[in-house]
Design a protein that fits this description.
The complex is a heterodimer of chains A (243) and B (315).
Chain A: H1 2-21, H2 24-44, H3 53-79, H4 81-87, H5 92-122, H6 129-153, H7 157-174, H8 186-192, H9 196-209, H10 213-241
Helix pairs in contact in A: 1-5, 2-3, 3-5, 3-6, 3-7, 3-9, 5-6, 5-10, 6-7, 6-9, 6-10, 9-10
Chain B: E1 3-14, E2 23-34, E3 38-42, H1 49-56, E4 64-69, E5 72-73, H2 78-83, E6 85-88, H3 100-110, H4 115-128, H5 144-156, E7 162-166, H6 174-189, E8 193-198, H7 201-207, E9 210-215, E10 218-224, H8 225-232, E11 237-243, E12 249-255, H9 259-270, E13 275-282, H10 286-294, H11 298-305
Parallel strand pairs in B: 3-8, 3-9, 6-7, 7-8
Antiparallel strand pairs in B: 1-2, 1-4, 4-5, 9-10, 11-12, 11-13
Helix pairs in contact in B: 3-4, 3-5, 8-10
The chains are: A mainly alpha (243), B alpha/beta (315).
């Protein structure tokens, strides 16, 4: 049974990447959107551009993983093809893990492009590669799980897009992407600590610009918790569709 | 005779709003399906046909009752059951973005068909369903009939011994429906057990070895087609076409409990003074059975479904 699950999730990931993700509009949108936001912010508030790279990477992962992930399941449910997967010898967690891996792979690929460009400009001095690798992987997992949860929680594609934006856009401004958390009011800092992007930005900042290992470990741990909770919520919600 | 499906008191109840009684979508049905037969589930819209298939394939949980498929318990072995069944839902649901070939390969990948067999098996299925020319066309670009054929091909990709077909010809033009019916007949010849739901009486009559008629979640009749027809007609009916002296043609039906000979004799007595054009012994149709058991005409059932579609079942 485990072999069926692993095989199924592997081929499901490949199918999703081929059918939905690696299309030119997705790739260009996934890369350009975070760049445009950061550029707009940098022009309005000239700061050390290097300090914006962690936020840029975190945004790229967030939008790269969730843009398609948040609609792919609800889309397949609308056209009936999700039923094919529910009929296959594949348990629900494996089905969702396959969906999640598709979003993660795409998100990490576009983030890699942004990372390479950033490193080419700002150099690699002082980078903690282990924290960087873990932060990228766990951010992609948490955001992809968030996208999967959004996608199974709604019935229409426009609802998925609305819900995803309802979650993503406040996160962009609350989670330390543009403004350091410490400079925010206390209530905003508390709110920010409830959102996964905060931990992603913080971990990436420590990886790229230096900081405490202990804080990084807490950030990575928080991303693990978000990943697990959101994934389990997505499995539970999808299971409820089988009445 | 091996029983591929055994169902006992299978029930599905959907709760409705507070204060209203729950909906018994399927209400304690019992039936068995034998290996290699085409078993028809016939009934009007909302009779519980699709809900039954959804329960038997793991897409819906039965409220109560038991079912065994391929000697496996539905309640405990659904993953093993899923590996051995193929399902064609009412709507063709392959992936628009993938080609016909890639859709078949993906179906085989999900079901663990060995890598070295996939290409040749996909080519063979495309050939069998007359889709070889559309091998590299995206599913979205295929005609409705081709989509239906490819969806059936995908359900057969892992060589399941049991296949569920839910309203396979609904919405198809006459030629496509006819072609699909030939394919379904071909499955029986290969020993595949087919569980078919349909609301087309002629289709059920032509394709099925045995038929269960489902009304409001309950099986009201289940038998071979010939036995079901016998239910509809207690006495033979003879139809005589006559022409009178003025040249007008009239048709008379004579029903008698004294057998066909008696009915013919009676018809001849009534025909004195007329020119007899034709004498037919009327055979009951499945439609007669259906009307008798459900009180619903075939036209009314098709109208419920939203139009004829599916062509007629000739061919």
């Amino acid at each position: 049974m485990l072999a069926d699950d692993l095989r199924g999730l592997f081929y499901l990931t490949l199918k999703d990447l081929k059918a939905y993700y690696f299309k030119p509009p997705n790739i260009s949108w996934g890369i350009l959107f975070p760049f445009a936001f950061i550029l707009a912010f940098a022009i309005r508030n000239p700061v050390d551009l290097h300090s914006l790279v962690p936020g840029l990477l975190a945004l790229t992962i967030l939008f790269g993983t969730t843009s398609m992930e948040a609609i792919v399941i609800v889309f397949e449910r609308r056209i009936g093809s999700l039923e094919r997967l529910l009929l296959a010898p594949l348990r629900l967690p494996a089905l969702l893990a396959g969906k999640l891996l598709g979003g993660m792979t795409f998100g990490l690929t576009v983030t890699l492009v942004v990372l390479v460009v950033s490193l080419a400009i700002f150099g690699t001095a002082g980078i903690n590669w282990l924290i960087l690798l873990l932060a990228l992987l766990l951010s992609a997992t948490a955001f992809s799980a968030l996208g999967a949860f959004v996608s199974v929680a709604v019935r229409e594609i426009f609802e998925a897009q609305t819900l995803a934006n309802f979650i993503r856009f406040p996160m962009m401004f609350l989670c330390g992407v543009f403004v350091p958390l410490a400079s925010m009011p206390a209530w905003m800092q508390i709110l920010a600590r409830l959102l996964p992007l905060t931990y992603s930005v913080e971990a990436l900042r420590i990886a790229l610009l230096g900081g405490s290992w202990a804080v990084a470990l807490i950030d990575l741990g928080a991303l693990v918790v978000f990943s697990v909770v959101l994934f389990l919520l997505a499995v539970y919600t999808l299971a409820r569709h089988i009445e | 005779m091996n029983e591929v499906i055994q169902v006992e008191k299978l029930t599905k109840i959907y709760p409705i709003d507070k204060g209203r009684p729950p909906l018994y979508a399927v209400d304690g049905v019992d039936f068995t399906v034998h290996q290699g037969e085409v078993f028809g589930f016939l009934g009007p819209n909302g009779a519980g046909k699709t809900t039954t298939i959804r329960m038997l394939t793991g897409l819906a949980r039965p409220t109560s009752g038991k079912a065994h498929l391929l000697s496996l318990d539905l309640a405990h072995d659904i993953s093993r059951i899923k590996k051995q069944i193929g399902v064609v839902p009412e709507a063709s649901n392959l992936y628009d973005e993938l080609t016909a070939f890639d859709n078949l390969v993906f179906a085989m990948q999900l079901y663990g068909v060995p890598r070295q067999e996939r290409k040749s098996r996909a080519e063979a299925l495309l050939d069998r369903f007359r889709l070889s020319e559309k091998r590299d066309a995206p599913f979205a670009k295929l005609s409705r009939g081709m989509k239906r054929a490819l969806t059936i091909a995908a359900a057969l990709a892992h060589r399941p011994p049991l296949i569920f077909l839910d309203e396979p010809t609904t919405g198809l033009d006459v030629m496509s429906a006819r072609s699909l019916r030939q394919m379904i007949s071909g499955l029986r010849n290969e020993g595949v057990t087919v569980f078919l739901t349909t609301h087309y009486l002629e289709e059920a009559e032509r394709l099925c070895d045995r038929i269960a008629i489902l009304v409001k979640g309950r099986i009201v009749a289940l038998d071979r087609v010939a036995q079901l027809k016998a239910l509809a007609q207690e006495a033979p009916v003879v139809e005589v076409s006559l022409r009178d002296a003025s040249g007008q043609v009239q048709v008379r039906r004579v029903e008698t409990p004294n057998g066909v000979d008696g009915a013919v004799r009676q018809a001849l007595q009534q025909a004195q003074g007329y020119e007899i054009l034709k004498i037919d012994t009327l055979q009951p149709s499945l439609e007669d059975v259906f009307i008798k058991l459900t009180g619903l005409s075939a036209e009314a059932m098709l109208a419920e479904k939203g139009g004829k579609g599916g062509g007629n079942a000739s061919g």
